[in-house]
Every structure is written in C-alpha cells, then in structure tokens.
Amino acid sequence: MSETFTLAEATLKAIQDRRSIREYSPEPVSDEDLNLILEAARQAPSGENAQPWRFIVIRDEATRKKLGDISGGGSGRRFTAEFMTKKMQQRFATLEDEAKKKAAYEKLTSGAVSMFAATAPVNIVVIGRKDVWDLPFDTSAAIENMLLMVTALGLGACWVIAPCIDVRDEIRLRKLLNIPDEYKAVSLISIGHPTRPHRPRPRLALKDIVFDETFGNPYYKE
Amino acid sequence: MSDKAISHEYLNGLVFDLEKAFWDERGRGCRFRMMEVGRDIYEKDCKDRIQSPDIPVIVHAVKEVLIDKGIAAEVAFSQEDLTLRVSVRGCLHLPVEERMLEKGIEPFTCVPANLIIMGIEDKLNRQVELAEIKCENGVCQLLLVVFDRPAAVV
Among residues A108, A115, A101, which one has the least CA distance to residue A80? Predict the structure, then answer.
C-alpha cells in the first residue's frame, strides 16, 4: 500500500532521500521526467527575478564521453596534487583497510571518480548569465530544485563541479559546447536511474550549526 | 595620464587587496580560477621564445622573461619523471604572499608557475597542475605535476 504524505512531509522526504548518484542503469531518462526536472529549475528564486540560468541538455554519446574526460582531467589533477602534498593521506588517515585506501587513492588521482558523465543517460550543463548580481546563488537554487525533482521521480543525479571549477576546464567545456563568453559554466548535473540504494552521508547536528541572534550563541540548547 | 613611475608597493597593495577579496569570496576554491593569470605575458613575451617542446626549454624561456622584466631574480628547477620542482628567488610579488601568509592564507596563485604551465600546455599539449606553493626566506618553491592527458579539447 502506498504511503501518503502531507506536502511538508513529502518535501522533507525528497530533501532527505536525495543522494549523489554516480552509477546509472542503461535505461534512458524519459522526456516527461526531463521536462519536470527543467520546470523545477525554472521555478527557482533569483535576485531581481533575473533568471540567469540556461540549461544545455546532453544526450549524445560522444559529447558525454568528452564531458567525462574533462571532468576526469580536472579531478585527476586536483586529487593528484592532494596526494603529492600528503593532504589526501591525512584525509584517509582513519581508514585502516589498506586495500580500500589504495583503491580510493587510485579512483581519485586517476580522475575516475568524476568520469561518470560518460555513462549517465543525460547530462545537463547549467550555465548562467554573468551580467546579473547573484549568478552563483541563483544557479545553485535552480540546481537544488533539479536534484529534489530528480529524487521525487525516483531517479538519481550528481552535482558535478569537476568540469567547471578550474578555469582551464571551463574553457574546454565552453569550447566543446559553444558557450558564449557572456555566460559562466556553473556545473554539470548527471542524471539517470540509480543501480542501487545509497546510504546517507553524515550530517552536522542542528545544535552545532544554528546560532541565536549572534554567532556562537547556540540556538538549540542542550 | 601621468608618466610617473608607479611603485611596486602600490601595485602589490592592489594585488593583495584583489587576492584577499577573491579568497574571501571563494575560499580554497579560488586557486582553480587563477590559472589564466599571466596569459597576456605568456602570449606576448614567452610563447615565441620557446623554440622546442621540451620542459627545460620552456622553463628556461619563462625564466629569461621573468628576469628580463624584473619579475624574479632567479629561477631554478629540477625534474623527476612528471614532477617539476621550481624555485623562484626574489619574486616581485612575494610581499603579497607574505601578507597573505600573515593572514593565515596559503598562497594560491603564482605568475611564474602559470607561465610555465601555459608553456607546457601550449607546446607539449599536456595538462599540468600547480600542486603546491611554499614561500620561505625570499624563495618560492613550486611543485608542478605534468599529466599524460592532452590540454586541448579534441
């Protein structure tokens, strides 16, 4: 028997059930689902209602592979730098399983951790007009709306910064997708049907992140 | 427009203000946005000096430009496989990084490093990462890692 939820309960469930999904079945994402995801993005708030976001839908196999390559290149470089400067080893210091640690290092330094755009049935590249006040905040609001709709539809997605965070990769991406200079490439959202359930990541407790009236004064008392 | 010479102190003061503003805006992520700083210098002064696609040739060409322009006093490097260690002595912008360090902010951008990286990406078509910048006793130690991945989008 299906559960019923109030609107608030359903909204919170979508928020809590959202996961970053990087493995997808070959099943395509339907046009109906894609339309709902894009509609959710379109309804996000933006400073002065500027709506600076634009979305490039990528399904072409060759382009998806290039997105994966750009993402993998960026991640591989960044994580190799972490490894070479011993920061990665510090990050994994508490992981006792040496085989798992080695596998993690390999996945990160090779860039494989970010190459899944190649296997996602659809990728959406989110870009935003630069001539607005609040570009990063507006586009992030649109992206989160997309992720929640993805979750509500039973799909899985991952918000990927790897192909855009380094300006050189953003240049590569802009060239690949003919993005004009007036727009910034903000992120890549890879979407598909998840192959398996994922556990939630740990979260800081509310009592540690909320303050009453001024910083440092706990809102939630013990 | 005045033809008075502008002091390094004034220019570096502006560079510090800009770097600090960028750090305040992006935090650790700002280093990824700085890799095109120096592009004009590379295109106008370094690119044509590089006579062959070899890392020592590239570093030497950049070194000549940096010293000729008074940006650095000396540049030395060593290479082990795909790791380059570059030391820059007497960089014009070192006071900026020293002020950043006083604020507890690790250096996140380096024009000499960027010029070498641009040269490798351009002439060797290889991706490069600036893994580390350490500034001590008037010398900046740079760690660069060269990758097998092509720099150009195919």
Answer: A108
- Residue A38, min C-alpha distance to chain B (Å): 27
- Residues A122, A57: contact at Cβ < 8 Å? yes
Closest alpha carbon within chain B to A78? B129
Q: Per-residue pLDDT tens for B102-143?
A: 999 999 999 999 999 999 999 999 999 999 999 999 999 999
Look at residue A83 and give its three-state secondary structure: helix
pLDDT at A1 over 70: no
Residues 6+ apart with CB under 8 A from A44: A53, A138, A141, A142, A144, A145
End-to-end CA distance of chain B: 45
- Residue A147 near residue A124 (C-beta atoms within 8 A): no
Q: Mutation target for A interface from B80, B129, B133, B141: give the one with most A CBs within 10 A.
A: B129
Residues of chain A neighbouring B35 (CB-CB closer than 8 A) = 166-168
Name the residue ranges covered by the structural domains of chain A: 21-195
pLDDT value at residue B120: 97
Percent of chain A with pLDDT over 90: 96
Sheet with strand A122-129: strands edge to edge: A53-58, A122-129, A183-192, A156-160
Residues of B in CB contact (< 8 Å) with A are: 29, 32-36, 83, 121, 127-132, 143, 145, 147, 149, 151, 153-154
Summarised one tens digit per residue, pLDDT across range A110-155 is 999 999 999 999 999 999 999 999 999 999 999 999 999 999 999 9
The answer to whether the CB of B61 falls within 8 A of the CB of A62 is no
Give B-chain residues touching A85 at CB under 8 angstroms. Answer: 131-132, 143
ipTM attached to this prediction: 0.94
DSSP track, B82-133? TEEEEEEES-TTHHHHHHHHHTT------HHHHHHHHHHHHHT---EEEEEE
Q: In the CATH scheme, what architecture does the domain A21-195 have?
A: 3-Layer(aba) Sandwich (3.40)
B127 vs A contacts (CB less than 8 Å)? 73, 77, 168
